Every structure is written in structure tokens, then in C-alpha cells.
Amino acid sequence: MWRASVLTIFPEMFPGPLGVSLAGRALAAGLWSLEARDIRDAATDKHRTVDDTPAGGGPGMVMKADVLAAALDAIPQDGRPRLLTSPRGRPLAQSRVRELAAGPGLVVLCTRFEGVDERLIKARQLEEVSLGDFVLSGGEPAALALLDACVRLIPGVMGKEASGVEESFSEGLLEYPQYTRPAVFEGEPIPEILTSGDHAKVRAWRREQAEKITRERRPDLWEAYSAQKGPK
Ligand code: SAH
Question: Whose Cα sits closest to atom 4 in ligand 1?
């Protein structure tokens, strides 16, 4: 079973949205497991302190390396990758999500305040992962998003196995546009090709659209896609 351990000072945020819909059904069915551990349980003083003032001064608080190390070390070392939510991390990409989903699960440390003592990251070799170039108030929403992305790829979780194959990023392209009934919406019809019944034409049109949208919206993805297609 794919197993997730989350370290947080707000364990009540979990499973939260992961207890609903696709991920929630899979959780109930035992296709994956989730434990949210309270970092404060690893604190040793009576106030259950997890943070302290930043060395060198400045605003805010920094999460303590000793407490977080104790919290991490209380989780058995079973080969699961250990991640840290951080705006300084590598932006999360579908390629990494696929790798994580194919593995045994993960341990994710959610921090708050100004972040965590740098020495912890080195000492426990944490993989820093970012949701994007913006700042959250805490790592929990990032952990929820990361887990949501992984869980839907666990075998048996998605209804049609195929729905994970032909979607955005799966081939380095954004997805083609989708349509459904009504046939005409506010004067705008569904593109004729999609109702033609000619599957080869539909496939070609979708590929064309995916390429066009990727080229227009994400020059970075397009460049990588073209480079990879080029030599073939
Ligand atoms: N002072 C820090 C921001 C701290 S935000 C800085 O300037 O880099 C508080 C916490 O929210 C972080 O420790 C991290 O766990 C989480 N967080 C904020 N933005 C995030 C992002 N884009 N991706 C993942 N986690 C994020």
C-alpha cells in the first residue's frame, strides 16, 4: 500500500480535501494510507515549543532543527523519500509526481513561519519541493496538493487507467481543449471534427491543438518538447 506520513503543527488539516471524492474513496478502500503527525509531540518543553527567533535577527520565527529532527526520526526509515515544502524547492512537476506515485509513498514535512533551520535540511537530506513561485502561509496546502497529485496515479484509484495517460504534461504538452453537450453554447458550436466520428482526424486535431496551446502558453514546455522530438 502507498503510504503517506505528514508532519505538521496542524494535523487537523488532514485528510481534509483528501478525504473526499477520488482520493477519499481510495483512502477508504485502503489503496493508500495517510497519517498526520503533530510536530509538537516531538517538543521536549512544557510549552511544546517548535520555533525560535531567527539567528541574526529579523522578523518572524524559525522552526527548530532539533525538534523537527526528532519528529522525523520517530518515523521508521523504510525507504520512503522525505520531502520538505518550501518556496525555494524545485517546482513540483508531473514527472516527479509519477516517480513518487510509483514508489512506496512519502514523508512530507510542512513548515510554517519563516521556514526551518537550514541545518535540518542538510542533516536529513530533505528534498525541497515548491508548488510554484508564490508564498503560502504554511506547507500544508502544498502537501495536500502534492498528495492529491500522487494519489490519483496510484493503480486502481482512477476509474479509467487511460485518464492518466492522455492529459496535460503526460507527453510534455498541455492538454487539447475539451467539449461536451450542448452542441451549441451561446452561439458557439463544438468543433465539427469532434462530432465527425473520424477517430484518426480527431486524434490529429487534438495533437495539433495541444501543440498550439503549449507553444502559445508555455514556451518553456514547448522548447523542451521540440528538443526531445527533434532528433527522432
Ligand atoms: N520566509 C520564507 C517563506 C515562508 S512561508 C521565504 O521567503 O522563502 C511558510 C511556509 O509555507 C514555508 O516554510 C513552506 O513550508 C510553505 N510554503 C510557502 N510557499 C510555498 C510554496 N510555494 N511551495 C511549497 N511550500 C510553500
Answer: 114
Q: From the annotation, which residues make up the binding site for S-adenosyl-L-methionine?
A: 131-136
Tell me which of 9, 135, 147, 148 to substitute to probe ligand 1's pocket, judged by most ligand atoms within 8 Å of the beta carbon: 135
Q: How do residues 147-174 score in pLDDT, each as one tens digit?
A: 999 999 999 999 765 566 778 898 899 9
Instruction: State whether 141 and 192 are in the same domain.
Output: no
DSSP letters of the chain? -EEEEEEES-GGGSSGGGGSHHHHHHHHTTSEEEEEEEGGGG--STT---EEPPTT--SS-EE-HHHHHHHHHTS---S--EEEEEEEEEEP-HHHHHHHHHSSEEEEE--BTT-B-HHHHHHTT-EEEESSSS--SBSHHHHHHHHHHHHTTSTTTSSSGGGGTSSTTTTSSPPPP---S-SEETTEEPPGGGGS--HHHHHHHHHHHHHHHHHHH-HHHHHHHHHHHTT-
16 and 98, same domain (yes or no): yes
Confidence (pLDDT) at 161: 57
Q: Give the pLDDT score at 100.
A: 98
Cβ–ligand 1 distance for 142 under 6 Å, the answer: yes
Answer yes or no: is the C-beta of 131 below 6 A from any ligand 1 atom: yes
Are residues 94 and 207 both part of a single domain?
no
Say if residue 137 is in the same domain as residue 183: no
What is the average pLDDT score of the chain?
96
Domain boundary among 127, 151, 175: 151
Give me the percent of the chain exceeding a pLDDT of 70: 97
Q: Report whether pLDDT(108) > 70.
A: yes
Where in the sequence is the domain holding 202, given as residue range(s)?
Answer: 166-229
